[in-house]
Amino acid sequence: IASNIGLIPKDAPFYSFVFKYLVPALIPLFLVNANIKRIIVESGRVGIAFILACIGTSVGAIIGVQLLDIGAREGDLAGIFTATYTGGSVNYAAVIQSTGFDDANIISAATAVDSLMSALFLAGLAILPASKWLMSKYAIRDHQQEAEQEKSSTKSEVTGFSIAAALTFSLAVVAISDLLVAWVDSLSDGFDATRLRYVFITFLAILPASFFPKQTAKMHGAETLGLVLAFVFFTAIAAGADVQKLISVAPILLAFVVIILAVHAFFVLFIGSVISKIARKLSSDPDKNLFALSLPELITASNAAILGATTAPALAMARGWPALATPGVLAGVAGYIVGTPLGIAVAAMFAG
Known about the structure:
- The longest helix has 40 residues, at 243-282.
- By secondary structure, the chain is mainly alpha-helical.
- The chain has helices at 13-30, 36-67, 74-84, 89-99, 104-127, 132-135, 148-151, 160-187, 197-211, 213-216, 222-239, 243-282, 295-306, 311-318, 325-349.
């Protein structure tokens, strides 16, 4: 609104600064606690369900491109939505930058459509357990016992040192990643390594978190700082949008998102049900079978993929599944890790 009524400019050097310097710093800030070993060990069935959710999102984006004409850069849009519906805003921003997608009208419309459909999707997930018939199609499991790590968790104090440490870590990861991109570029004249920038950033960010978790855990407030920078990014990208053009492209993007979420739901709910049924028939003790999935586990994983690491535990607690709160967080953090590479891979499929 501010840019369209002339309060702020539609284009300014600061916006370029945000895209070039702030967006890369988002990823390491969100990944300071992305301990791969813990995610694999503790996410359990929610982790299995999360893999289903990621596959569903990716296939949905690919099908959406085949069914709809969403413009010359539809492949990049497929990658962008794949990223946000497996990770979240940080991956959304990263793939936009990685693909060089610079149409502010489409990005702003996509952001608006994403916000609307995500809210509706969350509401749908919240009411699914009310159906006893639907619950019966999956493994029945008690999720009311709170996980041990939740009981022993303590509040962390954000300090000036922890914020400074988080910023230093983030900028160091970005700098090393850019050096790697330059080095890979120097090895071959015919290969553009620019798209690998965010893959390198993701990889370098999770290494310390996985091998030195106690040290990275001291960077309290890193994710909150990353969220603040994400808000700056969305403000900068929205400032360049023309409201009339935004409204004109919103309907086709709405249809595109509906297809993605429908295919995602099919994989999570239907394929998840089939896997759970087979696992229960083959196992003498379904409670110990990783593939005997319950509906709450599938819902938590879907929530973590579509809406992220914050709403997944919130919904789990609200529905009376405290044992799924921590796996929900871990699945959401896993989304931060895989969202960007997966989005870039889907975009690359359509690169001509």
